[in-house]
Amino acid sequence: MGQVLLWILTGIGRLLKPLTGRLVASLYGRSTPPDPSHRAPGGTMYARPGAAAPTPHTPPLLRWLHAWRRFGRSWWYGPVTGAVLALAALFEIPLHHRQAVSLLGGFALASTVPLMFRRESLRPAAAITLGALAASLLSGQPLLATTAFAGLYTLFLLAQQLPRQSTGVLGVGSVVAVGVVYVASGSLDGIPWPASLVAVVAALGLGDARRTVETAEASMDEERERNSETLTRLNAVQREQAVLRERARIARELHDVVAHSVSMIAVQAETAPYTMQTLSPEAKNGFAEIAGAAREALEEMRRLLSVLRAEPNAEPAEVTPQPRLDRLNELIDSHRGAGGEAQLRVNGAVRPLSTTIELSAYRIVQEALTNARRHAPGSRVRVELDYLGDRLAVRVTDDGSPVPVTRVENRTKAMGHGLVGMRERATLLGGRFAAGPRAEGGFAVQAELPVGQNRRS
After folding, report:
1. 395 phi and psi, to 5 degrees?
2. How far apart are CA 98 and CA 359, in angstroms?
3. Which of 202, 319, 357, 363 has its C-alpha lying 20 to 30 A from 93's C-alpha?
4. β-strand 432-437 against 391-398: which pairing, if any?
5. Exposed, middle or buried: residue 37 (CB in 10 Å: 0-12, 13-18, 19+)?
6. H helix or E strand, kind and range, residue 341
7. Nearest Cα residue to 317 out of 327, 309, 326
């Protein structure tokens, strides 16, 4: 007998399979079969030239779900659903052989219309709905399906919003109210009392479960946000470590490439007077100047390496103050000691300027003197500083080298990197810079630095 019943069910399933397949396809969507004309001879699919790309198709069921979610998040969800429930209650009243305009109709509207405002004022709306439902039952009015749903839905919403202790008190009160209705009136005589108690408890339990799920989702969202912040901080730390590693690599490269060579220059310049006894006093002074310049460059290199190797939060390393214009005489003397001729002329009222302005002017003069020694050895250099009202003018000129080392018209190209550095110093401060051959011979470097801004004590 069981085998026969199984055969019957299997046959019914096979008969209904096409119908169920079409129903599922209409709800969840069905992929369009490929066009055989788009298949290559080897079996590979290809796109027809000029044909539009296939557009993704959303299944009808998913479209309905998305539309319902958008409707549930809108502001008019509460008023519309509450009004529909109230209209359903009015249409249900004639089924109980009552007039819509009656005491039952008033209780039905009082039990459903407040749900239109449940999102804005849940507790007042719930009090009116449950009170009207209890009054309707105690007065002997028949129970409507719509008002019963309104009451259970109100209990669900309250359990979802109230704390667990308050939900327990609400459950006890609801059970007592149902018992009083069974004792005092006959409105619920057609419904077994266990079913009523189960419905009340189920509504409250579902609301409490929903609240638990929302709390868990909120906790998970907070945990994900904390994890995201932790990952962001970890990425920042990794980037900082990468920067530190890169700085350490640069420091190692500078040390390996430059520091060793500069140290050798200093050592050889210092030992030359002792290994060559026939050196003139001028040559000995020249070697001393070379050794001093090499030692100074080596000291600046060490300070640079210490900065590159320093940790971001470490205490700042001890550094010497940056040179200012009051050390221009030392720079001129150093140039003279290297065999050059230089004169310094200062025009205008000398006044202290900001550290940035004075350092930029000092570096421009230093680079110009270096270029003069390199590209025009033996030339006479003239350094002029003009303290004007709103700017500081720096001018460094030479009359050309008596030895044709570098032709004057080619010096701009030969001094490219130095000129770029000087121009950047001037333009970053909002000033102007120019350099080029002079009409009377030689080369000139001019810079104007604004002193009306960036002024610091």
Report:
1. -140, 125
2. 99
3. 202
4. unpaired
5. exposed
6. strand 341-347
7. 309
Judge if pTM exceeds 0.85.
no
- Report whether 93 contacts 87 (CB < 8 A): no
d(CA 340, CA 397): 13
| Residue labelled with tokens 């209780």 | 107
Q: From residue 48, how far is each of 32, 36, 238, 382 by CA, in Å?
A: 16, 11, 49, 78
Q: Which residue is listed with tokens 């090499």?
A: 294
Smallest CA-to-CA distance from 211 within 166, 152, 177 is with: 166
Tokens standing for residue 69: 């979610």
Give the C-alpha separation, 436 to 445, whole Å: 7
Pairing of strands 341-347, 380-387: parallel
Give the helix/strand (H/E) hosting 395: strand 391-398
Tell me: the pLDDT tens digits for 68-120? 778 777 888 888 988 999 899 888 888 888 887 888 889 989 999 998 998 88
441: left (phi over 0), alpha (psi -120 to 50) or beta: left
Q: List the one residue out of 283, 361, 282, 279 whose CA is nearest residue 323.
A: 361
Instruction: Please spell the DSSP secondary structure of 394-425, one letter per residue.
Output: EEEEE---SS-SS-GGGHHHHTHHHHHHHHHH
Residue 131 C-beta-side C-alpha neighbours within 13 Å:
9
d(CA 128, CA 134): 10
Of 220, 219, 212, nearest to 159 by C-alpha is 212
Amino acid identity, position 314: A
d(CA 24, CA 454): 75
The 10s digit of each residue's pLDDT in 320-364 is 567 888 888 888 888 887 777 889 999 988 888 888 888 889 989
Cα 381 to Cα 333: distance, rounded to the nearest angstrom: 12
